[in-house]
Amino acid sequence: MSEEVNSNIIFEILQGVPEAMEALASILTSSGFKHIETIKNYELFGLRLYELWNGCCNRNDYKTKQVLELLKNKKISKQILDEHLSKHPGIGFDEIINQEIYACLINKKNRVEEILLESIHTYSLVDIFGRPTRVEVEAYKHFIELTSYLLNDKSLLIGIESAFRSFDDQQAVYNELLSQYGSEYAREYVAPVGHSEHHTGQAIDVNVYVNYRWCKTNEELFACEDEFRIMHSHLHKFVFILRYPRDKNTGYPYEPWHIRYVGKNLAKYLYENNLSLDEYHANKKDRKGDCTE
């Protein structure tokens, strides 16, 4: 059957052609997928079928939920499908899926999707002050590479002050800044519970080691502008972005310490086009297949 699979057949599934849908239902059922009756999005079915027919899907619940939920209501056009099939035959749609995971926009208006929270894979460690924390596995791997480069090539030591936060953790951060700086400052700098990038483990608040110690306040961190400038200039090489730069409208003031892992293609695209993540999403409808290729 795999010899018959091509972009035209899958495009029929994307469009909800009944015969193609019946074939898909049979394949999914025989592969252990249990919730066909609850799924209404045909294009997600198409992605799943392509992976199953090519024997390259991860059949566990985690991957299934990613495909069905993180791509929900995302239009995968035939043009994108054809390009992907020609460039990556037999590989499946992991790159597209990962792009949705790492490109997600979370801010004061966009709440983190519950399914993303359920599917996060993190690495456990301690922060620079000895407190337990977690970082999304790909973000941590690239952060170690960034840290090593800055230390060995730039004699700059950085470390993790904050990474993954539960909803309770986020409320505690708000309460702490509220007591230290007042309500106006807390509202300006701290995301509401459920609206923080830290919930994903992809965001890291970086501290800098200067004068033989780590910085202890935001005022001290702001005073490390030279050190942060060095770090900022190399972030894209290690698949990070400065999430709240000084010259962009992100909904938050400038935070030199807050970096975000966004995936290789997107980090390169944002850097080369001088875009914030917010600008990328604002203009997304006008682009065709750029950094998802």
TrEMBL record:
Residues 135-264 form the D-alanyl-D-alanine carboxypeptidase-like core domain. SUPFAM superfamilies: Hedgehog/DD-peptidase (SSF55166). It comes from the Bacteria. Pfam families: VanY. Transmembrane segments: none annotated. PANTHER family: D-ALANYL-D-ALANINE CARBOXYPEPTIDASE, PEPTIDOGLYCAN L-ALANYL-D-GLUTAMATE ENDOPEPTIDASE CWLK. This is D-alanyl-D-alanine carboxypeptidase-like core domain-containing protein. It comes from Breznakia pachnodae. The lineage of its organism: Bacteria, Bacillati, Bacillota, Erysipelotrichia, Erysipelotrichales.
